[in-house]
Write a structure and sequence with these properties.
Layout lengths: L1 H18 L5 E9 L4 E10 L4 E3 L12 E4 L5 E8 L4 E5 L4 E6 L2 E10 L5 E13 L2 E13 L19 H8 L23 H21 L7 H10 L5 H26 L4 H7 L1 H19 L8 H10 L4 H15 L1 H15 L6 H22 L12 H28 L7 H19 L17 H17 L25 H13 L27 H11 L3 E6 L4 H11 L2 H10 L1 E6 L13 E2 L5 E2 L2 H11 L8 E5 L5 E6 L5 H18 L2
Helix pairs in contact: 3-10, 3-11, 4-11, 5-9, 5-11, 6-7, 7-10, 7-12, 8-9, 10-11, 12-13, 13-14, 18-20
Amino acid sequence: MKKVLLSLCAILLISSSIFGQENPVSWDFKTVKVNDSIAELQFKASIKENWHLYAQSHNNGMEMPLEFNFTDSKSYKRMGKVIEPKPIVHHDPVFDDTSRYFIKSVTFKQKVKICQNEDFVIKGKLAGQCCIEGRCVAIDQKFNFDVKGFNHAVSSDAAATEEETDESESESESQTDSTVAPTETIAPIENSANGTPVEEESLLSFFIMAFLGGLVGLLMPCVFPMIPMTVSYFMKQGSKAKFYALMYGLSIVVIYVIFGIVLSLIFGPDFANILSTHWIPNLLFAVIFIIFALSFFGYFEITLPSSWVNKSAKMENNGGVIGIFFMALTLVLVSFSCTLPIAGAVALNSVGGSLLKPIIGMLGFSLGIAIPFTLFAFFPGMLKKMPKSGGWMNTMKVVLAFIELAFALKFINVPDQTYHWGILDREVYLAIWIVLFSLLGLYLLGKIKFPYDDDMPVQNSPVRFAIAILDLAFVVYMIPGMFGAPLKAISGWLPPMTTQDFDINQVVRQEAGAVSGNTVSLSEAAMYADQLDLPHGIKGYFDYDQALRVAKAQNKPVFIDFTGHGCVNCRNVENAVWIDPQVRKLFAEEFVVVALYVDDKNIQLSKDQQILDQDGDPITTLGGKNMYIQNTIYKENSQPCYFVVDHDGSVLAGPTYFEKDVDKYMSFLKYGIQAYKEKHK
C-alpha cells in the first residue's frame, strides 16, 4: 500500500509541474480594531486535509519555518512579533528529528500601533512550507490589510519600536487560539496502510515492544521464582486477597512509570537531535549495552546497595496499602540485576523521543511484569500450569546477552560513519555478527557454557534446538555478505556497501565494463572522493556546484541524491534499486550523479566553498551546506530524496523518496531524461 501511495505522490507532483503549483493552504487576512490606536492583524490559514503547515518556531529540525515579512512604512509600528498558537510537536523516529506544525486551520496574530489617521494598507509577504507524507510545497503568499477608521492614532515618535517584544503577552495569547488544541502532540500524517497517525503508531509499537520486554523480564531467574511465593502470601489475606493483589500490580506500574517521568523530564524531545549522530551518547549507549550483556552472561551482577532493599523490606511490615507498595518496591529492587538490562534497553530507546515515550515505555514494561502477578493471584489454579524454575531461565538471559552485544554495534556504527573513523567497515561488522550468532548457536546446542548454566541435555529441549537451527541459518545467510552480497533483509543495520574492502560484484562489474565499454570516467576529479563513496561502482560527485558545472559541460541532467551516513532507508534503496544493471547504466550514460550527504560532520569546507545561511553566518561543514541546499532550494527535509535537475539547478523530475520498485524508479529517471531533452531541443 505504501508503494502505491508513493507512486500516486509522484504522479501528483508531475501533474502539478504541468498544470500549475499545488496550493494546500488558503489564507484569509482580517483587520480587527482593538482600540482607537491599536489594530490586530489576523492571518487565518485553512490547510487541506492531511497536510501540515510548519510553525514559526522550530527545534533545530530540517523543516522550513514560517516567516512574516512586512513592508516598511511610517504609518504603523509592530508591537512585538507575530503570535502563533501552541503547535503540534512531532518526533520522527526514523530521522530523529522534531518538528512543530499546524493542521486544518490556524490563526496567527500581529498587533500594530497606528501612526496616522488616514486610511492605508499594510503590505508584506509570508513564506514557509506545507507538507504531506514527505512531499512538501513552498508557501509564498503576499498579504494586504486595509486599515480604516482610526481617528485617534498616535504619532510615530510616540509609537513603540518595531523590534519591541512582549514575551509574556505572546505566551498568554498563544494559548487562547482554539484552532489547535494545546495538548495535541500526535502527528496527523496518516499511515498509508491503515490511516493511523505516524506518531501514534510509533508509540503503540514501542508500547507493545516494552510490554513484551516486561514479559521477558518476568521469566528472569530473580523474578520468576517469586511468583508462587507472592501469590501464596496474597492467598493468606482472606477476603482482601484480590484487592491486595490488584494494589501490588498497580504499585509495580506506579514505580516504573515514575522512573519514566524522571527520564522524560531529564531528556525530553530535544535530546533527539544529539542522539541522532553525535558520538558521545552513541558510544555511551554501546558501552551500557555491553555491560548489560556481560552481566547476563553471568560474569558479574549489577546490584543496588543492600541497605535500600533492607529498608524497603522493613516498610512492608506496616501492612495495608502502604505495606503492599513497599512489597512491590522490594520486588523491583531485588530483581534489579535481572531486569535492568531489559528495562535499560527500553529506557535507552525511549530517550530522544516525545515527552510521552519514556512514560509509555516504562508503562508497557511494568504491565508486562505486573499483570501476570495479579492474574495468578486472582486465579491461583493457573499456578499449577506454570513451568518449573530451572536452567531454561538462565538460557534466556544468555540469549539476550548475545542479542544486546549485536545491537551495541549499531550505536558504534552511527558515529563511525558520520565522523569517518573507519572502525566498523561492512565486513568487520558482519564478521562480528557472524561470530556472535555462531557462538549463540553453539551455546544453544550445548557446546559452550557460562557460569550459571546447568547441565541440561539439548535433546530434552526441542524449543532450544529449533532456535539453534534458526540462529545458524541466519549465520549462513550472512556469510555471502563478507564477499559483497547485499543482504537486503538486514542492509539497513549494516554499514554501507562502500565500506566493503572486497566486493566480488564490483570486480565482476569492472571486468564486464572493460569488455562492454559501459564504464564511465569523470571529466573532473570528484571533490571529497577521498572520504565519500557511491555504492555499486557508480561514479559521481559529492559537491553540488561541481556537479552542476560538469553537467553543463557535458550537456547532461543531474541526478541528485540527498542522503545520509545514518540513513537506513537510503541503504535499502541502494541495495534494492541502484544495484540493478539498468539503473547503473542510466546513471553512467545519461546523468551526472551527485550524492549530497546532509549529516556529514567531519568534512570542513574551504573558504571558497562556504556559503552563508539565512542569518548571514558561514556554513563550514559539507553536511551543513548540503542540508541547507535541500531545505532552501528544493524545499525538502527528508532522506532519501531524489531529484533530476537541469545544470542550472531547476527541477526536471522529482522528488521521489523511498521507492524500491526498479520499474517505477526507471520511469522516474527516464521522465527526467525526456524533460531535459525537451527543454534543450
